[in-house]
TrEMBL record:
This is Plasmid pRiA4b ORF-3-like protein. Pfam families: PRiA4_ORF3. It comes from the Bacteria. Residues 157-202, 353-453 form the Plasmid pRiA4b Orf3-like domain.
Length: 464
């Protein structure tokens, strides 16, 4: 497995997890955690029962969001099976949940304080919004930058970017599908929208209470709700590009159950009630520094306190939140969340706009990261000759008449799924353009084409 990991330039753990998913590798531990997971138990429950860490449990479970039954399956067949499973689980998991009237009444207290300027004002009017999306890795070396510049058509050598116009009423949820098409992915992995760390800390105050107050307003609830995020993933067969287009074209509707304010706050209420007193553990780094050379050292308990009184760091050191605490609600409109560069954020008049930069994270293994900003105009693109005035007018008309986004500038080629992030993509480019083994180059190209990748040039206006 280590040799395979080295050759494919992925981690040993990822190779093992893929083999477990394919049923080609098992251990007593993997069989035990698999059995308990099939019984509907959460990763945290399994870890507690087996007296181990959630990370170890996760490492020995098969992939649940992107399944492969064998090489004979086509790409479409693989994705069809994944989506059918997601839909089935979502229905089973959420269709019967309910909140009683008293809870609803109590949870509504304070809702207006935070949501007064959220733009849900039932109007058919919308305008165009200019976004810049930049896929970047700050740790590329000079040789990698040269490859990305030479073969990846990146002007900077360290990033791939897109400029798009979107309807002002587009939610984050639908922007996700547009991003998939813009960069060449096929919606095969988990994703999330998050805030820059400094904005997140400013809004929450770094406390459980500060975060909890914003769940259902800004942040997704703590319930294991990742299946509900996929409520709209109903792909069955045919062209993935056509399917994506339907998702990022308006009118926009959001039907994710757990993003409802009352539902989200009820989940917070249940979490807080579950831990009236929590043993707060030392940080992992403190534990590692203290336990060097001690095989059976236990994490130190530094205090006991109600969960609601803790800092977020203390909570995360002590319990595992499978979905994290940073993911934004996908029903929020992009234009509402994002501020222009010179615009105030988190002002006294309300919580929105929240940030000057939005972060889109896709495939937590490959860890693709895109920074999204809102631009006031297209003057820079016009001045550099990337787009003409007539082309810009046509693009704006397309957004307004067809209620869909349009790409107005592209810097860099399309990437693809499961290639190993930007580092892996650069290695892929080097192999297919400079590799000495003709058969190996051919195999790489065939694999990439099976994931929808192509070197064919596409006009910007036809990408979306």
């Amino acid at each position: 497995m280590q040799k395979t990991a080295d050759e494919l330039k992925i981690s040993y753990a990822k190779v093992r997890k893929i083999l477990i998913t394919l049923g080609e590798y098992t251990t007593d531990f993997s069989l035990e955690v698999g059995k308990r997971r099939s019984m509907g138990k959460s990763i945290l429950e399994i870890a507690t029962e087996l007296n181990t860490s959630t990370n170890r449990v996760t490492a020995f479970l098969p992939y649940e969001k992107n399944l492969y039954n064998g090489p004979e399956l086509t790409t479409d067949a693989k994705k069809s099976e994944v989506y059918r499973k997601r839909i089935k689980i979502a229905r089973e998991k959420f269709v019967n949940r309910a909140i009683n009237k008293d809870e609803k009444r109590n949870l509504s207290i304070g809702k207006e304080k935070f949501m007064t300027n959220e733009c849900y004002n039932n109007t058919n009017a919308f305008k165009t919004v200019h976004l810049h999306l930049e896929l970047k890795n700050d740790h590329l070396d000079d040789a990698e930058k040269e490859i990305l510049r030479k073969y990846g058509e990146s002007s900077t050598g360290d990033s791939i970017s897109r400029n798009i116009l979107i309807p002002s009423d587009m939610p984050l949820h639908n922007l996700h599908y547009a991003i998939q098409r813009l960069f060449g992915w096929q919606n095969s992995h988990l994703r999330r929208f998050v805030l820059p760390e400094e904005i997140y800390n400013r809004l929450t105050g770094g406390t459980v209470k500060g975060w909890a107050d914003l769940v259902g307003i800004l942040f997704q609830p703590p319930v294991e709700c990742e299946h509900d995020v996929f409520w709209d993933d109903d792909y069955q067969s045919g062209s993935i590009k056509t399917w994506l287009k339907k998702k990022y074209t308006g009118p926009y509707f959001f039907h994710g159950i757990t993003e409802d304010y009352e539902w989200a706050q009820n989940d917070i209420k249940q979490l807080i009630e579950r831990f009236p007193i929590l043993e707060v553990k030392e940080s992992f780094s403190d534990y590692m520094n203290r336990s060097k050379g001690k095989d059976k050292a236990e994490p130190r308990i530094i205090k006991k306190a109600p969960l609601i009184e803790l800092t977020l760091e203390e909570m995360n050191n002590s319990i595992t939140m499978e979905g994290g605490t940073e993911s934004l609600l996908e029903r929020l409109e992009v234009a509402t969340v994002l501020a222009f560069k010179d615009e105030d954020v988190c002002n006294d008049n309300g919580i929105f706009p929240v940030t000057h930069k939005l972060i889109y994270n896709y495939d937590f293994g490959d860890d693709w990261t895109i920074t999204i900003t809102k631009e006031k105009d297209c003057n820079e693109l016009l001045q550099k000759g990337y787009i003409s005035k007539d082309e810009l007018l046509d693009a704006e008309a397309t957004v307004l008449t067809k209620h869909k986004p349009i790409c107005i500038h592209k810097d860099g080629v399309f990437v693809l799924d499961d290639v190993g992030g930007l580092h892996g993509f650069i290695s892929f480019l080097k192999e297919i353009y400079e590799g000495e083994d003709k058969e190996e180059r051919s195999n790489y190209k065939a694999w990439a084409q099976s994931l929808g990748w192509s070197k064919r040039k596409i006009s910007n206006k036809l990408i979306l």
